[in-house]
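Thread: Newbie trying to understand structure tokens

Hi all, I'm a second-year student working on a class project, and my supervisor (Dr. K.) asked me to get a predicted structure for one chain before our next meeting. I've only ever worked with sequences, so writing a 3D structure as a token string is new to me. If someone could post the tokens and maybe explain what I'm looking at, I'd be very grateful. Here's the chain:
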Amino acid sequence: MSDPATPVAATPAAPPKWQTWLTRGVGIALFVVGTALGSVKLVETFNLPSCDSKRSLDVIRAIFKEKELPEPTLTAAKEVGSTSDEKTCSVSYKLPDETGTLDYRVFWEGSNAKVQITKVNS
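---
Reply by user tm_fold:
Sure, no problem. This is what the structure looks like when written as tokens:
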């Protein structure tokens, strides 16, 4: 027999059904978004960046900065040719006192994608 002076532990009330569904729905949505973003990153890791990708053009800008030149305005980046290991590209550039086009290549060096300027046409 139980002692009447001992309090009985109350069981917590179950959350309302709508709250349970909302929590599950948010969890599933976050899982789907996370999986999609992870998949995109995985694909980027194994594919060469395109000629007009931010990644490729940022490397071109970094090369100008390394040479202590002003940051160029880059427009009309396009792929001129490609193989499975390399893309040849062209982009128009503009500096305060010069305009022209750059030829560059995006290629694999080991497991890293690299960008190299091959010709400057002023």
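A couple of things are worth pointing out once you decode it. The first helix runs from residue 17 to 46. The longest strand covers residues 98-109. Feel free to ask follow-ups in this thread.
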